[in-house]
Amino acid sequence: MRGFFEINPHNARIAQQNMELNSTSNVIIEQKATGAAEGKVRMFRKSNASVTPKNIISWGMIKNLIYGVEDVEMISLDSYAEHKNIKPTLLKIDVEGYETEVLKGAKKILETTPKLEIEIHTEILSRQNTSVQEIMELIDISRYHCWIQWDEFEAPVDFEPHKEINKRVHLFAIPK
């Protein structure tokens, strides 16, 4: 069984419809946010919905007016996996700058060294008071062979830990 989390209710409905159209029965769609803890979080209502940053009031106010906001339930991946009695072997994370919080909520899963595909939104991380360095520390990059896709139109290349990541990238990792 696979868990698929989508914070945006509209996108969750589309994903559910696609599963039904394709007779897919091995995926559970959860219309929830994932993060470091249980609770509620506020999201911007847009197609690539994101958790509203707490540290930039003016940015949030502008987006609140443009997109509107909605409170949604948040769960950690560790508690979800424990509750469903599953052992994830792959984490695909595309959470528009909330990567660190999702990884903090997946510490037990990360101990098992699952395969990873993470879109890192470097331009948004500071709004969430985090950094690429913190993401790499949570992953324990030394346990993985990694590739990075610097541009969506190019193939991933070997990850060089000393090379600065200063734009949106995709990180791919498989256990060593």
Any key phrases for this structure?
176 residues; alpha/beta; Rossmann fold; five-stranded mixed β-sheet; three-stranded mixed β-sheet; globular
What does this 3D model show about the protein?
The chain contains 7 helices and 10 strands. A 5-stranded mixed sheet has the order 6-7-10-8-9, with no helix packed on it. The protein has a 3-stranded mixed sheet with strand order 3-5-4. It has a single domain, classed as Rossmann fold (3-Layer(aba) Sandwich). The chain starts with a strand and ends with a strand. Helices cover 31% and strands 27% of the residues. By secondary structure, it is an alpha/beta fold. The mean pLDDT is 87.
The Rg value, from CA coordinates, equals 16 Å
Strand order in the largest sheet? 6-7-10-8-9
Counting helices, strands and paired strands, the structural category is alpha/beta
Strand content: 25-35%
Name the assembly state: single chain
Biggest beta sheet attributes: 5 strands, mixed
Q: What is the string of helix and strand elements?
A: EHEEEHEHEHHEHHEEE
- Average pLDDT works out at 87
Q: Poorly predicted ranges (pLDDT <50, ≥5 residues)?
A: none
- CATH fold node name: Rossmann fold
SS summary, helix count: 7
Under the CATH scheme, which class? Alpha Beta
User: How much helix, percentage-wise, in residues?
Assistant: 25-40%
Give me the CATH superfamily. Vaccinia Virus protein VP39
